[in-house]
């Protein structure tokens, strides 16, 4: 996916993205922090994409792969997607001129916390410091089950995306926690 | 439920070999690691089946404490040398199918 995104030569600073339809559990993936597609876009764009231009719309238009074979259906969905995105954008722009001078909403990409020796609980998914950071890797498993807002794939997705982006998108260079440095008993 | 886990593990083991991962799954990112992936899958199925059979034979073992100590997080266990928590991290990372058994 990273390879495909980069091959499109998008103008990342202007690109408008709608992450539309349900992803994972009905309660999950509704924010930048809990939807790893946002992190994927962020890293694939070399941190150029504007967070403000990425909208998560679980009730927005969705499409099935089979829709892509039908040009008329694709055009119809594109119209729906643009309409939803631009309506959201219009509200944002309108708020800024209507309420100029009042404190603004700023969509920020926050640094995730890390687990310290004294950590008992965290407000957000902790960052894996290295492939050997087993405590964090297993804590993230707990988080994706315990916090209904998390996508199950969030347990490792951010780490894998970061590893791929740091290693020229080459999976062979990614150290996989629980696999690369582990010897599994050979099959009988 | 427990029986279904054992049956599913048996089905997975019956098709799980290097050829299956190379030719049927054929995911670019697994290239060169197919044998090790097959070892991991086989290990997971064997350990899971054994744990379930042990619990079915003595239902007093059907506790979360036993699950943690002898399956998810065993320490220096010859029977479970790789804790299943580590296996879960690995399978999520490699994107291995978790909810479907191979056809």
Account of the 3D structure:
The complex is a heterodimer of chains A (188) and B (103). With 188 residues, chain A is mainly alpha-helical. Chain A has two domains: 1-110, no CATH class; 113-188, no CATH class. Chain A contains five helices and two strands, in the order αβαβααα. In chain A, α2 (36-44) links the parallel β1 (17-20) and β2. Chain A is globular and about 60 Å long. In chain B, α1 runs antiparallel to α3. Residues 98-103 of chain B have low confidence and may be disordered. Chain B has 103 residues and is mostly helical. Chain B is globular. Chain B has one domain (2-96). Classes of the chains: A mainly alpha (188), B mainly alpha (103). At the A-B interface, α4 of A face α3 and α5 of B.
What is this structure's SSE topology?
The complex is a heterodimer of chains A (188) and B (103).
Chain A: H1 2-7, E1 17-20, H2 36-44, E2 54-57, H3 71-98, H4 134-146, H5 157-166
Parallel strand pairs in A: 1-2
Chain B: H1 2-15, H2 18-25, H3 34-57, H4 64-72, H5 84-94
Low-confidence stretches of chain B: 98-103
Distance between the termini of chain A: 36 Å
Tertiary shape of chain A: globular
Total strand segments of chain A: 2
How many domains of chain A, as an integer?
Answer: 2
Number of strands of chain B: 0
Strand order of the largest sheet of chain A: 1-2
What is the residue-averaged pLDDT of chain A?
93
Structural class of chain B: mainly alpha
Mean pLDDT of chain B: 89
The domain count of chain B comes to 1
% residues in beta strands of chain A: under 5%
Helical content class of chain B: 55-70%
The SS-based structural class of chain A is mainly alpha
Radius of gyration of chain B: 14 Å
User: Largest sheet of chain B, if any?
Assistant: none
Order of helices and strands of chain A: HEHEHHH
């Amino acid at each position: 996916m990273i390879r495909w995104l980069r091959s499109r030569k998008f103008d990342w600073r202007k690109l408008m993205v709608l992450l539309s339809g349900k992803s994972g559990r009905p309660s999950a993936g509704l924010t930048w922090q809990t939807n790893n597609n946002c992190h994927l876009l962020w890293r694939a764009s070399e941190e150029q994409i504007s967070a403000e231009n990425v909208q998560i719309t679980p009730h927005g238009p969705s499409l099935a792969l089979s829709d892509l074979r039908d040009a008329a259906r694709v055009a119809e969905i594109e119209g729906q997607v643009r309409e939803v995105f631009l309506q959201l954008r219009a509200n944002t722009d309108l708020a800024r001129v209507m309420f100029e001078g009042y404190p603004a909403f700023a969509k920020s990409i926050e640094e995730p916390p890390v687990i310290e020796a004294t950590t008992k609980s965290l407000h957000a998914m902790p960052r894996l410091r290295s492939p050997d950071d087993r405590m964090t890797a297993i804590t993230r498993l707990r988080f994706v089950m315990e916090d209904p807002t998390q996508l199950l794939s969030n347990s490792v997705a951010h780490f894998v995306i970061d590893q791929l982006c740091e290693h020229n998108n080459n999976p062979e260079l990614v150290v996989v926690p629980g696999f690369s440095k582990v010897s599994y008993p050979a099959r009988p | 439920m427990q029986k279904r886990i054992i049956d599913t593990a048996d089905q997975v083991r019956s098709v799980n070999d290097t050829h299956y991962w190379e030719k049927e799954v054929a995911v670019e990112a697994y290239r060169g690691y197919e044998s090790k992936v097959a070892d991991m899958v086989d290990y997971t199925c064997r350990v899971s089946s054994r744990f379930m059979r042990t619990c079915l034979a003595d239902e007093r073992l059907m506790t979360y404490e036993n699950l943690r100590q002898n399956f998810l997080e065993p320490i220096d266990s010859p029977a479970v040398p790789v804790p299943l928590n580590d296996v879960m991290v690995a399978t999520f990372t490699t994107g291995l199918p978790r909810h479907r058994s191979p056809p």
